[in-house]
Amino acid sequence: MMIRPLLRAPLYVFLFALAPTISQAQTSLTWDSIQAQARGQTVYFNAWGGSDAINRYIEWAADQVEEQAGVDVELVKITDASAVVTRIATEVNAGNTDKGSVDLIWVNGENFKRLKQEDLLAEPWAADLPNAALVDYKLPVTTDFSIPTDGQESPWGGAQLTLIYHPERLQRLPENAAEFLTLAEENPGMLAYPRVPDFHATSFLKQLLLDLSDEDPALYQPVTPEAFERVSASLWSYLDRLHPLLWREAKAFPQGIAQMHSLFADGALLMSLSFNPNDAANLVRTGTLPEGVRSFGFSRGMLGNIHFVAIPRNAQAKAGAKVFANFLLSPEAQLRKADLNVWGDPSVLDPSKLEGPRRMQLISRDAAALPADTPWIAEPHASWVEPLEQAWLERYGDGR
Amino acid sequence: MSLKALAIAALLITLALYLPTLTLLAPYQELHFGALVQQLFLSSEVPAALLGTLVSTLGSLVVALLLSFIFIGALIFTPAYSRFVGQLPLLLAIPHLAFAVGLYLLLSPKGWLERLLAPLGLNWDGLPLVQDSLGVTLALALGIKESWFLCWIIWAQLERQHFAEQYLIAQTLGYSRAQIIWSTLVPQLLPKLRWPLLAVAAYSLSAVEMAWVLGPTHPPTLAILAWNWLLDPDPVRRQLGLVVTLCLMLLMLVLISIIWMLPTLLRPGQPSGRRLGALPGLGQPLLKGVLGVHVLIGLLLLLWSFTQSWFYPQLLPGKWSLNAWHSLAIEPLINALTLGFSTAVAAIFLVLLVLEMSFRRTGWMLIPLFLPVLPLVVGQYQLVLWAELQPGWFAVWLAHMLWVLPYVYLVLRPAYQNLHQDQLLCARTFGLGPAALLLRVKVPLLLRPLCAALALGFSVSLAQYLPTIFIGGGRVDTLTTETLTRFAGGDKRLLGAQTLVLLLLAFSVYVLAQRLPRILYPAREAMH
User: So what's the ipTM on this one?
Assistant: First the structure.
């Protein structure tokens, strides 16, 4: 929100100047003293609250840390992380440097980039967590959309773009963007993607862009106007052809993947979309999708990324937030998170660092989930998101 | 402390609570309008969003006005009239959001209506019944919802007028019912409907709850566009959001002038003397149809809340389950209850005390009803930042008061002014001081309006979305915010259960308010 404070007390300028010395002192503390400091703190954990399964999982994790470490975690259910980033920025700009309303935030990509660029993050801390040793560093956990995390956020889970279909209604699966267009030509009105700037919509555009441009290396560099023009040209001519063949001729778009799931389940669409490879398996169990659905990806691979938790610079309960983040990385918490009956979010731990039964649990996948051998395509540099969304809205935003 | 001092304190508190109406313009002083307005015109979304906003707002006004005149016109002086008037408070108590969600379940693609008509071979994939790009469905839904409010206002007006005699005279002169309503009732009522219509317009223009569920999505209405932009990471986009809220205020000015000229524009002219034949009675079947839709969407909410899986083309759920009810959280209910009752009670206290000051000019208390919600919330946020108030229950309480106060005032002022002066005089001659007069005479005499104010204040607080989410920083979940979160989450089972709780709470408070006088004074029938 672009509201400036009406008053700016000189006291805050003073506190602001002191802040670096205080936080330097904090990083030298050992884990034991962090734990001691955390006891009794209240951590406001801001996380997207649209899924019941996720909310229940977070409540469970909160109960565990309360019991094990005496940290009280309050889940703040949000609909949009960028709004919370804006709130943090507003607080810090208003001189609030140590009693912010957010202690830990579930974040990645664009929002992390903004937090980092505007210097809204706590000093590096993620590598100091004891459970950081168990993380699978073969996954892209140290960069977030090509931006180094520098230990200012701790990995929580993995995600990969996934297409969901029903084998009885769709026999021949499209293996790339071109075949997706052919499928649309054969079944007009039966394919869709959500409206930009929905996160799944932007991800789908990036997947198409990577496919159409043959993973142009420029996509992994900060965007420039020339590169954008050159690389995105094929996407626009593709979408110009695709849109008239989409659901409601692209004069309307599903509001989000929830509506897509519902349209898909009722037979109005041939495919749905998710960023969780286990989503289809989950949704069948809860009765949202019919029995027998399966997941697939393009033959080149599907866009994948890691989601993280980060501590804002002005958090009140930094120690408590670290203790909670450490618990979220524990094998206990990660396995439960990966359990389809709980949430089904892929773990970020390295199976080889765990012992027998737990390792097996980590690598098994449900039949409805995205096949585990689907290759990962790394996210383009985060700076591509904004121009991509802008250009899309300029071209197609008026609904004509 | 004397009553006088209390009343002054109440006035000051009320004025402080109304500060957001003054700060709402503060954020604009730092904007560079030239560049921003240029960008606004370049944005492809704004013109289409403006069109959707205009269609839904103007459409809702037309639909609400037409329906209310048709319903009242068809029912007045028939036995069904008093039954209809009795149903009105219940219809008014339905939260906008609950109505919208119910309609969504009925009309959405592959929704219940499409399933019902599928065997007939009807297929309207090309004709969207919800979230159409012009906002027609939103206009109809808002219009139906607001028509109960206008019917209620018209009923209250007719109670004070001698319309029966006019009707009788016109009837004996041989005019048909429709002709009498159009040429005598409408011109008399229109000037009195200006203020209620303004409140309807302000709500339709900038409330996001119903627009989110039923309105256009590509692009959305201006209010939702502004809301999204205000929360955007890009500072330029946030400034654009502010400019759009300013546009909403300008649109409100346009609407004010249109509504003000309405009685002149719709002047029926001198009757020509021609007697038109009776029109076929469409009003009563139309009302039955609209009420039927209400019952249907109530049933749909109920069915979805007990569903495990329910796919097209099934007309009834395939598998049943109690899961949705098990997964409901209790905090939103507790927050809605505590906020609703405490704001309503506090507002009643403040309004009564302000009225006790016997100021002549208290009309300003209605101002928030005629301002678009979004700029007011921006103004509130400005103050919250300035006061360094932590987002939370209390901040939300303060924010809700801005809308609870004017509605409570709306109910209490006429009742307070209609108190019989001779009764009060009589009480004074018995030696009652101002405080005793208020507590022992006025309050008991005002018991029914007080209960109505309690119910209305509660339901206003219950319905608040933007202030709750914005001033509460997302920390305070109420049934309304939770219902919209469920809508975004897309699980119709949870959505059904959550919306039903919202609806049931609104109904129970209404029933409680109606019964309260009977419970408090069981022996005095005249007070019931």
Answer: 0.87
